[in-house]
Amino acid sequence: MDRNLMMERAEILVGSVDDLPTIPIVATKVLQLLDDHDVCIDDIADLMLTDQVMTARVMKLLNSPVFKPTQDISSLKRALVYLGLRHIRELALTTSVIHAFEGTSGALELNSFWEHSFGVGMVSKIIAQKIGYQDLEKAYISGILHDLGEVFLSNFLHDPFMEVLMHVKTHPIKLVDAEAMLLGTTHCEIGLSMARKWNFPESYCDVIAYHHNPGQAKIDPVLCSIVNLADLFCTVRGLNYGGREWISFKVCEEDAWTILIEAYPGMAQMDEERFCYELDDAIPDVTALVASIFDHN
Hints:
The protein is mainly alpha-helical. It has two domains: 18-102, no CATH class; 107-283, Hypothetical protein af1432, CATH 1.10.3210.10. The chain is built from 17 helices and no strands. It is globular and about 55 Å long. The chain starts with a helix and ends with a helix.
């Protein structure tokens, strides 16, 4: 199906929703404040402390297996110093997206969705580290955000999306292809439309739009390829919320693998079985991470 038509369809659908969740005001102010090169940690901490949900989520993520601090950090100011300004922006963005959809009910079970999303984030970070990609946290956040459009479809196109999920369970077709066939658009275009409305950085928009087709990425094909492989890996390892997707894959046969080898020739010597075996070590941490993030106690 023509991508331009799917994008037009996505923009119509997103534009027709009057009560589309928004990024919390505090998060928007934090992101704006971080654009000031003279900003100080105290100002950011004071602002973030006015949003208890964001503060709690940032602290939980910081003390999670993803960041692995040498000891628990209980002070928000110390947490911000530990993270650095760039990572504060990324965590503020992530926690805001989670909060925007919290408490909603849709065709998807949200915890399963976030389990997949955080799994892809964690595996993306591992892959990025293995190949020498410089921005590990960008890989992590991109993995978390890649399927943003699915939450929209789940909440605002509940019945049509349920038909898509049922179709995937009974036919040998990928979820993204079933969406294109039955909805006239996919979570990629929907997610891109939402990300633009929320003024996400362009590199994240690129991943959301092209994580199934990294060769078409406009900004960072390597980042899209990292997320693509992490997504496939998590899907075949059972971290998958959309029912049976009939996916089996060999790393060496994926376009994403070719893109990564072109960018990092040393990868050609990497043992694929060992590569996948080492990624498996990340899977047990994911459920615990999701549980900690959604635990309000």
